[in-house]
Design a protein that fits this description.
By secondary structure, the protein is of the alpha/beta class. The protein has a single domain, classed as Spore Coat Polysaccharide Biosynthesis Protein SpsA, Chain A (Alpha-Beta Complex), CATH 3.90.550. 34% of the residues lie in helices and 11% in strands. The strands form 3 sheets. It has a 4-stranded mixed beta sheet. Helix 2 packs parallel to helix 4 and helix 4 crosses helix 7. The radius of gyration is 24 Å and the shape is globular. The N and C termini lie far apart (95 Å). The relative contact order is 0.14. Keywords: Glycoprotein, Glycosyltransferase, Membrane, Transferase, Transmembrane, Transmembrane helix. It is a single-pass type II membrane protein.
Length: 360
């Protein structure tokens, strides 16, 4: 008697025949994982970071500056991290150039993803071509965003020894106060006189959070036990991607090697992996928690976040009341910046610039 074939055999054959089709469509529907940071890119960054450390250690030698110039007054380095056009460049132009005396108090640096070169919206202005630094591709949820921020910091350190604060800005960020208000706040000016740097005790404004319901998932995003011994769970912190660092902390960041070995590893759980929100708060919390305010100067609305993105403001939401509300903070200092705004907010924001945003 001949036994009948297994009822599962046709299903198995169909599955095997369908496998190539499934693989083909999956590869075209799901985006491929971003590539790791290449060895040549890592070596180039390392050379840049060593230059920054060397410039600082030989600060008595007159620096050769490409982007800025030395000045006796301390400056703020504004570092724009972007992968799209600089939609709010006209608003930032008004922020920087609202007073002629501001021009020697800041420097601007732009890290633009080389695959999406932003259009220069202000030829000859603060976003002119010479403000763009040599950049590399960035990918969301990867250590490339850490590398880009460190690249900006190192460039600003090398460029001008007068840079004393280093503020990282998104292309979706807007200012909430005038430049002079921000400058006075950071440098603790009294009677409109800048105190000598050696008498000031600055703090970095970076968010450092130790209590978060998703902390364990974020910590194990690369796999269980991967982060030890360099980063123990009790030392792991999260915070905002955007910050303002003192020069001392900026130097510590570009000199750091030990934690970077862990944070640059690829993630197994992309939905929990935001390295740029983990690396900086963790490192500075370990090295100098008392030197950090523990909060950021950039206001973000997470009440209706989608896929890890915060609330986006649209023109219908803009009003003087919104600007005033965004400034309010539960911390010592008010918020100086806010994100995230849609590109079509530019015209309404420009209409409010002089009468609301820059009127402190």
């Amino acid at each position: 008697m001949i036994s009948s074939p297994s009822p599962w055999l046709p299903t198995l054959i169909l599955l095997l025949l369908s496998l190539p089709i499934i693989i083909f469509f999956t590869s075209h529907i799901l985006p491929p994982p971003p590539p790791p940071i290449s060895l040549p890119d890592e070596l180039a960054d390392l050379a840049l970071f060593r230059r920054a450390a060397a410039v600082e250690s030989h600060s008595t030698r007159k620096p050769k500056s490409r982007l800025g110039s030395t000045n006796s007054k301390p400056k703020i380095a504004f570092m724009f991290l972007t992968n799209t056009d600089l939609q709010f460049a006209p608003l930032w132009e008004k922020f920087f150039n609202g007073n002629k005396s501001n021009r020697n108090l800041y420097n601007v640096y732009v890290h633009a993803d080389p695959t999406v070169r932003p259009e220069i919206k202000s030829p000859g202005g603060v976003f002119s071509q010479d403000r763009f630094i040599p950049a590399k591709e960035t990918h969301r949820g990867t250590a490339t965003l850490i590398a880009a921020a460190r690249r900006l910091i190192a460039t600003a350190i090398i460029d001008d020894p007068a840079n004393q604060f280093f503020t990282l800005i998104s292309q979706h960020c807007i200012p909430l106060h005038s430049f002079q208000f921000l400058y006075n706040t950071l440098f603790e000016i009294n009677s409109h006189q800048v105190a000598e740097l050696k008498h000031l005790k600055y703090k970095s404004f970076i968010e450092i959070i130790s209590q978060d319901p998703n902390l364990w998932d974020r910590y194990t995003a690369r796999g269980d036990g991967v982060m030890v011994p360099e980063v123990k769970f009790e030392s792991f912190r999260v915070g905002s991607q955007f910050f303002t660092l003192t020069r001392q902390h900026a130097l510590m960041v570009v000199n750091e090697r030990r934690l970077w070995k862990k944070f640059k590893l690829p993630c197994l759980k992309p939905q929990s992996c935001y390295p740029e929100e983990h690396y900086f708060p963790t490192f500075l919390s370990i090295e100098d928690r008392k030197g950090c305010a523990g909060y950021t100067l950039t206001r973000v609305n997470w009440t209706d976040s989608v896929n890890g993105h915060p609330h986006t403001y649209y023109p219908s939401e803009l009003s003087p009341e919104l600007i005033y509300n965004l400034r309010r903070s539960n911390f010592v200092q008010p918020y100086m910046f806010a994100r995230k705004f849609s590109p079509d907010c530019l015209n309404p924001l420009m209409d409010m610039a002089d009468g609301v945003i820059f009127r402190d």
